[in-house]
Amino acid sequence: MVDRALWTAQELIAATGGTLHGTITKPINGVAIDSRNLNSGEVFIAIKGDVHDGHQFVVNALNSGAAVAVVSKPTDAMKAAGPILVVADDPLRGLENMGRAARAWNKGKVIAVTGSVGKTSTKEMLHVALSASGSTHASVASFNNHWGVPLTLSRMGRDVAFGVFEIGMNHAGEISPLVKMVKPHIAIITTIAASHLGHFKSLHEIAEAKAEIFSGVTSDGSAVINRDSEFFDFLAHEATNAGIQNIVSFGKHEKADVRLKQVALHPTCCCISADVMGEAMAFKLGMPGAHMALNSLAVLGAVKLAGADLARAALALADVAPPKGRGVQEFLEIRNGNVLLLDESYNANPESMAAAFALLATAAQARKGRRIAVLGDMLELGKFGPDLHKGLLKSLEENKFDKVYAAGPLMQNLWNLLPSSQQGKWVLQSADLIPALLRHLNPGDSVVIKGSLGSKMGPVVEALRKQFQPAKKDD
Ligand SMILES: Nc1ncnc2c1ncn2[C@@H]1O[C@H](COP(=O)(O)OP(=O)(O)O)[C@@H](O)[C@H]1O
Ligand SMILES: [Mg+2]
After folding, report:
1. Has residue 188 got a pLDDT over 60?
2. Closest Cα to atom 10, ligand 1: which residue?
């Protein structure tokens, strides 16, 4: 393999259509949109974010070693710090065109993942599973939106064997333009659930929006769809309508092409036996939870479709770990024992709440203490919010929770339904739960902390970590 820069200056100029001021002297070995974590030699694209305009940071980026900056509003200070590539339009268009160019020269297999929950987990599993067969490029974190997708594309080396892209949406119409850039050979929809339901009239509309992913699949491509979803028939129909001939289903359903035969749920992993399109497989998944076991079926289906080595992929899945805030388990020392903490603070919706409660129940099975849920509001549910919060009661009961601590106006709906013996504390702001938790937690307790990112449950996790030392093992 020839060791070459990710982008040559000529390729960059051609893709962005910009005019160069100054001379590019460094090999361009990466693409950045955030000057705070820019590596020397990367091209800095000055895009407008939710809060800041990247143009404010161009001089900073160049001073930090950027090979060149792509801007639409040049200043003398930028030219002095230079080199800069001046484009007529929003630099985001330049990034998109870089993404398209990178996609065009890549000869590997490209996989796109969408779904209401499980995109990042599935993407991470694919990254690990495919890396066992060849070089694999994948989205960082949840870079799945109008800038995350072109950024990930523009960073894809031309020699990678596999590209894995997470594609997300908050509204209808967002997936179509993104998937048309990615042009996946394989499109996965993990599941349809009530995430961002507030922006839609019904779950069916969410299914329609997710089905947009089929519109960008290559002509010989495949769709991987959840057989257990109530929307399976609809999604399969949409895939066919989009011209996809090969549909692979996954799930517990007896007709699933990738079928879960058995799963043993352990506190920190699952042992799975599955039929993967006619091949019997038994493997260990390094992430706990029945929901993750199901995601892994989509992964193996995609691995097989991509022509990668299935046995190596299954072996590699033993080594995956939950991404930050999505099921990481740790033990914290408290008095003469420990608390098991399940950090699910990254995000929440009804589906993933239920999955997290079940996971805590599995992890707590061998422990003597209480099962405690510390919950923040699930956001973006619109008029469905109050009822969906009330609906959590059932799965708290099923998983035998002893206490609930809750923060936020929506969680009050759930709180009011709880028997007083289960009411720990309700507050408006998540931070106000911290003193009560620090006082009330006992050795042996198992605690899940979960809420939408905007409900700020992460700081609650951090406060516990700050107060209690990590403990090595279970009681
Ligand atoms: N198939 C699934 N069903 C229910 N919950 C899931 C599923 N996959 C993941 N989750 C949970 O959903 C939350 C978000 O997971 P993540 O993989 O980050 O999804 P996304 O990228 O779609 O937001 C986590 O709490 C995770 O444990
Ligand atoms: Mg994600």
Report:
1. yes
2. 118
